[in-house]
Amino acid sequence: MTIGIHRPTQLVIDQSAIFQNIATEKSRLKPGVELFQVVKANGYGHGIIQVARVAEKAGATGFCVAILDEALTLREAGFMQPILVLGIMEPQYADIMAAQHISATVGSIQWLEEATRYLADAHQLAVHLALDTGMGRIGFQHPAELSQAVEYLEGKNQFDFEGIFTHFSKADSADTAYFQQQIGRWEAFMAVLPTRPKYVHVSNSATSLWHDACNGNMIRYGVAAYGLNPSGTELTVPFDLKPAMSLTTKMTFVKELPKGYSVSYGATYTAQQDEWVGTLPIGYADGYERRLQGFHVLVNGEYCEIIGRVCMDQMMIRLPHEYPVGTIVTLVGENHGKTISLQDVADYCSTIHYEIACGFTQRLKRTYK
Ligand SMILES: *Cc1c(COP(=O)(O)O)cnc(C)c1O
């Protein structure tokens, strides 16, 4: 993918914010509890390698990713820490994982059996058993199945039974009934476990911030590291999260439109009077969604409406008065004391900030401060 380095549009990532969001949470953990930073999806759009470097300095002792290729990216960059792949990979990749000391998530005995066909003799694959306590996504569903899997693993030195975990679907909600139900199922699983493996982990950001759950000894810390409240606006984070991502550009064209003149595809916006209009070099191909027509950006501390359809690579905004070409425009972040958060963008798009952050495409240059 071509990165737009010769244009003024950029995602600016504040590394000190990420550091602080991790270090603060780390300091709240009980002694002996490790923090694995979740850096899947290019570090939620922030850049996998850069985030991993900061996380390491802030006290993360391992990483979680979604797919094997993300784990390999970290290994190629020289990270030696434990890495857990949270998704189920196809058993044919078991040997690549074993060779690279990448831990696999397993949700069935059948997976283990198939993996043995691929594992080279000298190789041992570390596995984390996923328990489905109510997420309904992956994992063992009944304690009896877990017992069988643990028994199966006891006889096999092709595997190292390194971890056991579950994932909560409503840890970010004020209503804790479903969370409690999942805790109940978790306890039923734990009751049949003869010995605890090295890692027992149940906490994503929300669980770690708002629950004291299950005596885990590792957390899978994700979105909060990037300065985003996992609950959106429902719950208050116990410390100040610092958003790490801003998105800025500069106007490439400025003109006065006469009253009655229309803007962009479909001519969906018509000037009600003579209006100053700025053109920005960013569009939906950058992950700045088309449905953001009618939302706003910041110019010199003032909110300016996005007028007309957002195009693939450009979009137009209405200005209060003439501005010079090259004037800085903030699409996400702070500008002269005013702010547009990823949450604001997500609200306008009827989605969550997670989707906006990881939806920014590779074409956007990322710069680090
Ligand atoms: C993505 C993910 C996390 C991190 O979740 P956040 O809400 O970003 O903290 C933790 N565990 C699993 C299994 C995940 O898929």
Automatic annotation (TrEMBL):
<comment type="function">
    <text>Catalyzes the interconversion of L-alanine and D-alanine. May also act on other amino acids.</text>
</comment>
<dbReference type="InterPro" id="IPR029066">
    <property type="entry name" value="PLP-binding_barrel"/>
</dbReference>
<feature type="binding site">
    <location>
        <position position="312"/>
    </location>
    <ligand>
        <name>substrate</name>
    </ligand>
</feature>
<dbReference type="Pfam" id="PF01168">
    <property type="entry name" value="Ala_racemase_N"/>
</dbReference>
<feature type="modified residue" description="N6-(pyridoxal phosphate)lysine">
    <location>
        <position position="40"/>
    </location>
</feature>
<dbReference type="InterPro" id="IPR000821">
    <property type="entry name" value="Ala_racemase"/>
</dbReference>
<protein>
    <recommendedName>
        <fullName>Alanine racemase</fullName>
        <ecNumber>5.1.1.1</ecNumber>
    </recommendedName>
</protein>
<dbReference type="InterPro" id="IPR001608">
    <property type="entry name" value="Ala_racemase_N"/>
</dbReference>
<feature type="domain" description="Alanine racemase C-terminal">
    <location>
        <begin position="244"/>
        <end position="369"/>
    </location>
</feature>
<feature type="active site" description="Proton acceptor; specific for D-alanine">
    <location>
        <position position="40"/>
    </location>
</feature>
<keyword id="KW-0413">Isomerase</keyword>
<keyword id="KW-0663">Pyridoxal phosphate</keyword>
<dbReference type="InterPro" id="IPR009006">
    <property type="entry name" value="Ala_racemase/Decarboxylase_C"/>
</dbReference>
<comment type="pathway">
    <text>Amino-acid biosynthesis; D-alanine biosynthesis; D-alanine from L-alanine: step 1/1.</text>
</comment>
<feature type="active site" description="Proton acceptor; specific for L-alanine">
    <location>
        <position position="265"/>
    </location>
</feature>
<comment type="similarity">
    <text>Belongs to the alanine racemase family.</text>
</comment>
<dbReference type="GO" id="GO:0008784">
    <property type="term" value="F:alanine racemase activity"/>
</dbReference>
<dbReference type="InterPro" id="IPR020622">
    <property type="entry name" value="Ala_racemase_pyridoxalP-BS"/>
</dbReference>
<feature type="binding site">
    <location>
        <position position="137"/>
    </location>
    <ligand>
        <name>substrate</name>
    </ligand>
</feature>
<dbReference type="Pfam" id="PF00842">
    <property type="entry name" value="Ala_racemase_C"/>
</dbReference>
<dbReference type="InterPro" id="IPR011079">
    <property type="entry name" value="Ala_racemase_C"/>
</dbReference>
